[in-house]
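Handout for the seminar on molecular recognition.
Each group receives one record of this type.
Step one: identify the two inputs.
Step two: read the structure output and locate the region that could contact zinc ion.
Step three: write two sentences on what you found, then compare them with the reference statements printed after the record.
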Amino acid sequence: MKSKISEHESATTKITAKRVVLWTFGGLLALIVFASAGLMLTFTAAKLKTPAVEVGELPPASPPVGMSVSILPTGAYQSRAALAFRGGSWSDIRQFTMTALLVRHPKGNLLIDTGAGRNVDIHVKIMPAMMRATTDYTKAIPAVIQLAAGGISLRDLAAVIPTHAHWDHISGVDDLPGVPVLVTAEGKAFIDSKKEGTEVINSIPNVNYKQYTFDGGPYLGFPRSHDVWGDGSVVIVPAPGHTPDSVVVFVNLPSGTRYAMIGDLTFQLEGLEIPAEKPWMLRHLIGENNEEVHKDIALIRTITQKYPQVHPIPAHDVSAFRSIPVFPASTR
Ligand SMILES: [Zn+2]
């Protein structure tokens, strides 16, 4: 009798244990399905509601006749529209260009971003594992070599203006020893923080940082500005949304054409045009300041709608660079 009861008890315990395992497994599966569905939802189309902004009058600019711009494409990495902006397609493969912009100016030539340099293979190896694993890049000719072939040596460069210190914008700084790299105190503090994303700039020996301040007044809705040559031709404004050191550089040509080099405020033009923010996962991994990004997207959209002579250039959008000739050709 006793043994029959204990047999029954043991069978009941076995059934209960099985149920617990099944429920746990089922619960975990449901959790994974819900989490995956939730994550996929963060990639779906969602038009960004941007705040209302005022951009004011078009600031005067007196670019000298000798001023011109050229692009120096240095390579690209493969990505997808889905990873660039919400609503982008997974099957829409995009080549994220790494391009430097050369501004030739009688007071001194400037490079806005440098793209991939000679040591880009080493630079990619020191990036965080996750970024390294997902970066599939192809190399073109580094900016320093293109410049030398066109007769521009390091001595002929007054400064590099990085839109921010991520690897794909400053890898080429490694090839430009001694050339001043313009940063603000806030920008330098971000680099010195050694936070994720600053590994490459911090691996480059003896970067010749030259600090500047936003000593100028409001500019097209941005609160402060810095006029590099004092003639309104190259004006930097703070845009600390993508990273704390991010800036927008306005380049104003003698012809009246103006460019807004927006760095990674949006990865592709659609980010501005729709407008749409980057998918949550990307924003989260980068550590973006959403509010600041939304405000700056609103400013750039309003500026380019009100003043069509201003062309926005997201740093990785090949099509945005198409109107600018490849060095040594140039446009004024
Ligand atoms: Zn970036």
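Reference statements: The chain has two domains: 1-41, 68-321. The mean pLDDT is 93.
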